[in-house]
Amino acid sequence: MDEEPLVRWDWIGRNWPRIQPLLEDHIVMALVPVVIGLLVALPLGLAGVRWRRLYQPTVGVMNVIYSLPSLAVFIVLIPITGLATRTTVMIPLTFYALAVLIPAVVDGLTSVPDHVRQSAVAMGFTPLRRLLRVDLPIAVPVVLAGLRVATVSSISLVSVGALVGRGGLGYLFIDGWQRQFYTPIVVGIVLVVVLAGLADLMLVLAQRLLTPWARARGSA
Amino acid sequence: MNWLIDFFGDPANWSGPEGIPVRLLEHLEFAGLSLLLAMLIAIPLGLWIGHTGRGALLVVLSANAARALPTLGLLVLIVLFMGVGTIVPVLIPLVALAVPPILVNTYEGIRGVDPDLRDAAYGMGLRGGQVLGRVLVPVALPLILLGLRLAAIQVVATATVAAYVGLGGLGRYIIDGLATKNYPSTIGGAVLVALLALLVQFAFVLAQRVTVSPGVSGRQDIR
């Protein structure tokens, strides 16, 4: 490998037909678990606020799940969901997303100041109306902060799936390692980081759009 | 479950250079050293940034950027670049993984201390360093420990990847098992890593009980 440049950028152009499906696969495998996670975490978080006593043990279980190494979970799932399938990668990622999102929803909903809640009650808001017009909007920033963590970690974690045959851009790492060739590895890392950065940026923008009052007060 | 008995019941898996005790020690070496290095970098930096308020933007930016770095890619790249002679190539990605949670939580912990408390400490005549050491750090300790715990768990879990580039650790059972379609070994290795991660989690809960002052831990459940 002497006199070889670290990265041969023309490699990207020539191999784009091979990279593009990996990129698409990566996006699907990273984002579907986060979307499912959010859809599940909202009702579960609401239940968690309502039944605090059930929520505490749930957090314990979530912590345990979060501490399981992704590679280990992928492998345990192989006999059930098959080698090199999207499902094998997406199931653990869904649980990681839940482990971040459920506490975020609960923390967001419980961060509503008491006097705000009492004002809503005094104004005659029904519980549903209070939830939609008061509690949820105030919870948005905390939920979105959790969503950012879940999304960025998910995008990064998909690549570990390459070790069980389906890791989107992670395949480029394996490819580069097997051929002892820097370029695919660097390209893979750059694409993963850019993807995560773009997703994060979009969520920051969403946060700005969804919480105009925070901007008006100058606190975010 | 038979797979587990096949793996853990085999005496050959318990002795020699490929045995579970040796692999476990290798794993702990990777994880422990990386965590130690990350602490040496992140805790002083976090304390300084939290205390002076300088460079807060650095923390915010580096935190999410570092979360995005794929460890597997970083590892194969560095090993390819430096060769596999020492364990340094493994430590770099693991340290990169561990620094952000420690840095962010240390910074947030210090910055989140009640300003009245801080002002009272100054009012009593303590100097900057004393305020940091005697007031801010003890109050921020639960968050600092949380950061360490998150970092430790991630490092223990991710150190498995070292086996992919031919180094030791518990990941060997997983990666070698996958390569040779030896499922008892793979699952056994996965179970060992998971148990180790849970043990680490538990150790931090204990450490928190011991080190955090009762007055501070009154408001528990900080995440």
From TrEMBL, chain A:
<feature type="transmembrane region" description="Helical">
    <location>
        <begin position="181"/>
        <end position="205"/>
    </location>
</feature>
<keyword id="KW-0472">Membrane</keyword>
<keyword id="KW-1133">Transmembrane helix</keyword>
<protein>
    <submittedName>
        <fullName>Osmoprotectant transport system permease protein</fullName>
    </submittedName>
</protein>
<dbReference type="InterPro" id="IPR035906">
    <property type="entry name" value="MetI-like_sf"/>
</dbReference>
<dbReference type="GO" id="GO:0031460">
    <property type="term" value="P:glycine betaine transport"/>
</dbReference>
<dbReference type="GO" id="GO:0005886">
    <property type="term" value="C:plasma membrane"/>
</dbReference>
<feature type="transmembrane region" description="Helical">
    <location>
        <begin position="61"/>
        <end position="83"/>
    </location>
</feature>
<feature type="domain" description="ABC transmembrane type-1">
    <location>
        <begin position="23"/>
        <end position="204"/>
    </location>
</feature>
<keyword id="KW-0812">Transmembrane</keyword>
<feature type="transmembrane region" description="Helical">
    <location>
        <begin position="89"/>
        <end position="110"/>
    </location>
</feature>
<comment type="similarity">
    <text>Belongs to the binding-protein-dependent transport system permease family.</text>
</comment>
<dbReference type="InterPro" id="IPR051204">
    <property type="entry name" value="ABC_transp_perm/SBD"/>
</dbReference>
<dbReference type="Pfam" id="PF00528">
    <property type="entry name" value="BPD_transp_1"/>
</dbReference>
<feature type="transmembrane region" description="Helical">
    <location>
        <begin position="155"/>
        <end position="174"/>
    </location>
</feature>
<keyword id="KW-0813">Transport</keyword>
<feature type="transmembrane region" description="Helical">
    <location>
        <begin position="27"/>
        <end position="49"/>
    </location>
</feature>
<dbReference type="GO" id="GO:0055085">
    <property type="term" value="P:transmembrane transport"/>
</dbReference>
<dbReference type="InterPro" id="IPR000515">
    <property type="entry name" value="MetI-like"/>
</dbReference>
Automatic annotation (TrEMBL), chain B:
<feature type="transmembrane region" description="Helical">
    <location>
        <begin position="71"/>
        <end position="99"/>
    </location>
</feature>
<dbReference type="GO" id="GO:0031460">
    <property type="term" value="P:glycine betaine transport"/>
</dbReference>
<keyword id="KW-1133">Transmembrane helix</keyword>
<dbReference type="Pfam" id="PF00528">
    <property type="entry name" value="BPD_transp_1"/>
</dbReference>
<keyword id="KW-0472">Membrane</keyword>
<feature type="transmembrane region" description="Helical">
    <location>
        <begin position="131"/>
        <end position="148"/>
    </location>
</feature>
<dbReference type="InterPro" id="IPR051204">
    <property type="entry name" value="ABC_transp_perm/SBD"/>
</dbReference>
<keyword id="KW-0813">Transport</keyword>
<comment type="similarity">
    <text>Belongs to the binding-protein-dependent transport system permease family.</text>
</comment>
<keyword id="KW-0812">Transmembrane</keyword>
<feature type="domain" description="ABC transmembrane type-1">
    <location>
        <begin position="24"/>
        <end position="204"/>
    </location>
</feature>
<dbReference type="InterPro" id="IPR035906">
    <property type="entry name" value="MetI-like_sf"/>
</dbReference>
<dbReference type="GO" id="GO:0005886">
    <property type="term" value="C:plasma membrane"/>
</dbReference>
<feature type="transmembrane region" description="Helical">
    <location>
        <begin position="30"/>
        <end position="50"/>
    </location>
</feature>
<protein>
    <submittedName>
        <fullName>Osmoprotectant transport system permease protein</fullName>
    </submittedName>
</protein>
<dbReference type="InterPro" id="IPR000515">
    <property type="entry name" value="MetI-like"/>
</dbReference>
<feature type="transmembrane region" description="Helical">
    <location>
        <begin position="187"/>
        <end position="207"/>
    </location>
</feature>
<dbReference type="GO" id="GO:0055085">
    <property type="term" value="P:transmembrane transport"/>
</dbReference>
<feature type="transmembrane region" description="Helical">
    <location>
        <begin position="155"/>
        <end position="175"/>
    </location>
</feature>
